[in-house]
Structures are given as C-alpha cells and as structure tokens.
Amino acid sequence: MCGIVGAIAKRDIAEILLEGLKRLEYRGYDSAGLAIISPEGQLQRVRRVGKVKELQDAIDDNPLSGYTGIAHTRWATHGEPTELNAHPHVSDFIVVVHNGIIENFEPLREMLIAKGYQFRSETDTEVIAHLLHDTITKEQCSLFTAVQLVIRQLKGAYGTVVMDTRNPDVLVAARSGSPLVIGLGVGENFIASDQLALLPVTRRFIFLEEGDIAEVTRRNIKIVDKNYQLVEREQIESDIKYDAGDKAGFRHYMQKEIYEQPIAIKNTLENRIKHGLVDLSELGGQAENIFSKIEHIQIVACGTAYNAGFISRYWFESLAGIPCDVEIASEFRYRKRAKRKNSLFITLSQSGETADTLAALRLAKELGYLSTMAICNVATSTLVREADLVLLTKAGTEVGVASTKAFTTQLTVLMLLVAKLGRAHNMSEQTEKAITHALQALPNRIEQVLTFDSQIEKLAARFIDKQHALFLGRGDEYPIAMEAALKLKEISYIHAEAYAAGELKHGPLALIDKEMPVIVMAPTNDLQEKLKSNIEEVRARGGQLYIFAQEDSGFVSDDSMTIISLPHVEEITAAIYFTVPTQLLAYHVALIKGTDVDQPRNLAKSVTVE
Ligand code: M6R
User: Fold this and answer.
1) Dist. CA 588–CA 16, nearest whole Å
2) Residue 237's CB: how many other CB atoms inside 10 A?
3) pTM here?
4) If we measure between CA atoms, which residue out of 266, 247, 243 comes closest to residue 255?
5) Ligand 1 pocket test: which of 300, 354, 358, 397 has the largest number of ligand atoms within 8 Å of its C-beta?
C-alpha cells in the first residue's frame, strides 16, 4: 500500500508532488510527507499525520522551493501513523520513500544498530535509508550502485524511491512486488506508484517490471533488470482518463459511483452482445479452444471481488453446468490444494494490484492451470499484464474505498462469461438469449432502483443506534447479503454479518431480539417460500425485519416488518439489481453516523501488501 511520487525537474515541484499524492490517497491516507532538495542543496522535509490535505496546509503556510524531491502517502504497516513514522525517512544525506513490507527488517535493524545507526522511527523503511548510507560510505559508489547492493539484502514485496541530497540530479527507483511507473517529460522526469499521479504532467510512461532498478535524471532513464543487466523498457502513451477529478455534484465519490452503475454496466456490455449472443472475440482465437476444454473453474479474489466470484459460482454451476470453486486469495496461496483437471483460473480485482490476488495468479501459473484469466477494472494493472486472458470491467475510475460500481460490473462480466462458457458446454441458445436480454435490461432496472434513494435514506435513520446487523439471503442472494454486510461495516463501522437464511437456526438465531435489525434479500424466485419460513423464525423472536422484495412478493409491512417493494427485475440478474439498495442503505447509515464515507478509517483502496 502507500503511494509514492518523485520528481526531478528544472521548476518548483512541490505542487506536482502534492497533486500526485492527492491522486494516490486511495493507497493509504493515515499520514503523508514530502522532501525536496532546495536549490542551495538543503533538505527540506515536511510530514503530517492525517490526509494529504494536512500536508498541503503545512506547505501552504511555509512554501518549499526546489527541483528534486520525493513524497509519500502512508498506510501504516510497521509503526503507528505518527509524524515520526511518516515518510520520507532520512539517514544523513539519504532520503527514502517506500511502499510495501521489508520482511527481514528486524535482523537488518539489529545489524545497523550494532554499527552505530540510530533509528528514529518504528518503520521497516528506515533500514533502507541506513543500509544505503552505510553502503555508499563504505563503497564510495553511486546511489544507483548502492541501491543494487542493498536490494540484494532485502526480503519482501516493495517499491522504493531514494535520493541523495549531495547529488540532486538523480533519483533511483526499485520495484520488487509493488508497481512503479516512470513518467517522461521534456527535460524533466517523474516516478509514481500509479500513472494517475502523473497525468497532470505527462502521458508518456515506462512501467518498471519486477526486479527493475531505475536511475532517473532530468534527461535520461537507465534501467537494470532483476539480474542487474541493462535493459530497455517500452515507452507507452497513456490514453487513460482521470475521471475522478470531481464529484459531479454528488456529496461523496461513493454516492457518485453508486449512481454511475447504469452507465458503467452499459459500457461494460458495449460490443460484447451481438444479435442477442455474447461476443467475447476480444479474448482472441485461443480462447475458444481453451473454453471447450474447461471442466472446472477456480475463482480467487479478495473482499468485494471475492463476493462477486462467490455469486458467479451459483451461475456457473446452475446456468453453465461447470463446477466452480471460489476462494479468498490469502487462503488459496498458502494452503496445499488439489488442482482439478482442465481448470480455468479466474482472478477478479478492481485495482489489479491486490497483493494476495496477484500472488495467487502467479501461483496458478506455476501450478499449470489450463489457463488464467483476469477480470479487472484497470487496463494497465499488473494483474492484467500477467494473466493469459483478460476481460476488463468498464466501470471507470472508482475512488470510494467501498467498492460499488466495480462490483456490479464484475458481476456483469461474469454473467457474460457464464453465457460464453455455458454455450461451449451444454447451454441452449435460448438460455444465452435470456441472459443477454436480462443484462441489456439491467441499466434501466437499476435506474429505477435508484429512485428509492429517499425511501432508503429514511430507513437508514433507524440504524443510527445499532451496534450490529444481520443480512440474510438464499441462493445467489446469500453472497449479495455478504456484500451488503461488508458495505455496512466498512463505512458505518456497524458490526454486520451475513448468513444463508437456512443457517439461522444453526446458531445465529440466538442473536435475535428486538434490538437486532435483520435485512433480508428476497427477490421473487423458487426460494422465496423457503425464505418466508426463515423470516417467520426471526419474527417469532421479535427481530426487526427489513425486507428488500419485489412488488409482486405479497409481503406486507407491519410492526415487525418493513418491506421495500422494488420494481420488477429479470430473475437472472436479480442479484446484481438487489445489490444497489443495500449500497444506498450503507451509504445513508454512514452519512447519518458522520463517518468518512470515501476513506473509512484503517482502510485503503488498493491493498498492495499481503
Ligand atoms: O482491487 P481489488 O478488487 O482486488 O480489492 C479487493 C478488496 O480489497 C476490495 O474489494 C475491498 O474489500 C473493498 N474495500 C470493499 O468495498
């Protein structure tokens, strides 16, 4: 996690670094800092606890001048979010920003203390600063050489950018597990964790590869690969849009992103349905061959993306007839597993940089899955670059930490894939057409659900004093209940759990009393009668029920049940549709509770540490 920006130019760079940090806040926002070498060669460093805004205010009060500098927004791993632990870290003339984890920092720290180095922070990063200082002092070598020597001693997944105040003409960057990109200017160059940070200054980029170390001056870029051999990396002209710049009149990015779902789904479907049939020719000719061989699907992801995968398991098995397993990436990567024959390995990720998901993909490649696929929202991400097959969600930039439009577009892509793989097996054309029809109707259906916003806002007021909430669903609505619980807990800090409604009597029923809100996802389908029995179990014990159903459900509100009657939706896409009111509920509860909706405490948008 954490965001890094560096600049080497012939103009003042403080504003460039600050703007870059603001754009990287999705990677962490518990403290931020910046170091610039003044034109006289003095190090100027400012660090603040809290968001980049705090840093900006401090620099507005005491402006900095200088042409070479590095900056950082932090998500604490080692050491609390304090000013002392904030980056950049310094060892005499060496200045370091770092993202990721140095796993062997403890023995290195002890070794450096024995040599007389004094540690001022609790971070793992500070060992890099002292190791570089020690190496340069001993070897009398360049910063570039010193980084190559020091990197060999570090274990873990990280990205780092360093500078030497005695030589403001060079920045050195090293990538080992966390992405770094070099932005190319005219007579100036930049480095960042993500190209988004640099779009105000350039659209030409070099993406560093795993193990690369780069020496960046104003006019030159020199790169060695993981074997310390000089390499040339391709320059890429970016056409990415940074559409997160403003909230378009909405109060929060999360609210904007909930409202963008109809268009995001439309964009995700564009050119992928032709004459009522799914067209995924973008995958290339090899895909058809692979698809006909698939006997099993293994899905691996984290958080909301995992929930999306879990839902699709119901669809792959019921509609496409293909056995499917879904697992959390951090579990998958560390357990001994039995690989199924002819298994397609699918990773889902909004960012494409989630450390556990990436590690799982790499493991799947080693294990020799039939093929690997990434379903991802960021075309330039590591996941997309490393997977054999790629299907992009076209949600547009998602800024809110709570994932909303990324989730519903992941489900949209998964449903397209269900139809495609189903047809390569035994699915009828009629079922495929029912799927595409339901998908094409979905944006309008979601527009209709969004008109329930004020009704849901009123409902949210009833959650203000609650400490806990239970979400229930059956079938593919069970993972939707999981996603709804995740949304509520993540942004309102109310403890929320989800259960398959049939599980209630096996334990959770003990929690039910008049204080416990129970939110039920109850679309009109074959399972509704079963669900009604579960609802009665809650009612009989005095639980407060909030039921999201359809107009034709026959549910009637009374003292113990509040029914939110939603308009008709096609059964195939009901799970996607029923997600939206739960997003609105979480949003309004958080709003009433006054939490930081877009950047909830302790979290980050992109989880690049394991
Ligand atoms: O970028 P990814 O989709 O791989 O991220 C996975 C999770 O970190 C993410 O979905 C997280 O759970 C969200 N904050 C949930 O809203």
Assistant:
1) 35
2) 9
3) 0.85
4) 247
5) 354
